[in-house]
TrEMBL record:
Species of provenance: Streptomyces spinoverrucosus
Family: Belongs to the UPF0111 family.
Lineage top rank: taxon: Bacteria
Protein name per its UniProtKB record: Phosphate transport regulator
Cited InterPro entries: PhoU-like_sf, Put_Phosphate_transp_reg, UPF0111_domain
Length: 206
């Protein structure tokens, strides 16, 4: 990493780490949803909504810091993109939980648990990676693994769609379930966007 003579605002690192930790909380709530009956899902959705609001607060704090900082640790555009992509992950996870409750889904199709397991692993990796933004060391394996997980999520998503359209479900149920699995796939894509942004930052700063 190149040597800098100018001081840099370092609170961004802590805020990115807090945002990623909150995503881990969201992924755990998704996992909890899998094993919950219909009566417990509304309460899980409330906790997910609170986590999503906390994510919004973290994102707004980053944007405020960005607007008020003369010197930033890396490009302003990359800070904005990273914060926005982290926020997108929480938004998609919260949307998935909300849809399960709103649509009164009795049983999620087989394969959704694999989608959520991929998201939970990506969340752990992202939370582990954020503190390394300070030095930009030991991050290569992170973005490689998240990209691999996103490819895995794509395969799971395609199999789920094939399952949904195999004639087992009626048309309305297909529409409901497809929307849920599509939103979970968007969450996986958002994890990849975060990893790609981290890679971009590392390349620029090397």
């Amino acid at each position: 990493m190149r040597f800098r003579l100018t001081p840099r605002e370092t609170s961004f690192y802590d805020m990115f780490a807090a945002s990623a930790d909150n995503i881990v909380t969201g992924s755990k709530l998704l996992m909890e949803l899998l094993g919950a009956d219909a009566s417990a899902r509304a309460e899980i959705a409330e906790r997910m909504r609170a986590a999503e609001h906390a994510g919004d607060d973290a994102t707004h704090a980053i944007f405020h810091q960005l607007n008020s900082s003369f010197i930033t640790p890396f490009d302003r555009e990359d800070i904005y993109t990273l914060a926005s992509s982290l926020d997108d992950i929480m938004d998609f996870m919260e949307e998935a939980v909300d849809l399960v409750v709103l649509y009164n889904i009795e049983e999620l199709p087989k394969g959704v648990e694999q989608q959520i397991e991929v998201l939970a692993r990506a969340a752990e990796l992202t939370a582990e990676a954020m503190p390394h933004l300070r030095t930009l060391d030991n991050l290569t394996e992170y973005w490689i693994e998240v990209n691999r997980l996103e490819n895995q999520a794509d395969q799971i998503h395609r199999k789920l769609l094939a399952h949904l359209f195999n004639g087992k479900y009626d048309a309305i149920e297909v529409l409901k379930l497809k929307q849920i699995v599509d939103v979970l796939e968007e969450a996986a894509d958002a994890f990849e966007h975060v990893a790609n942004t981290v890679e971009t930052i590392a390349v620029k700063e090397s």
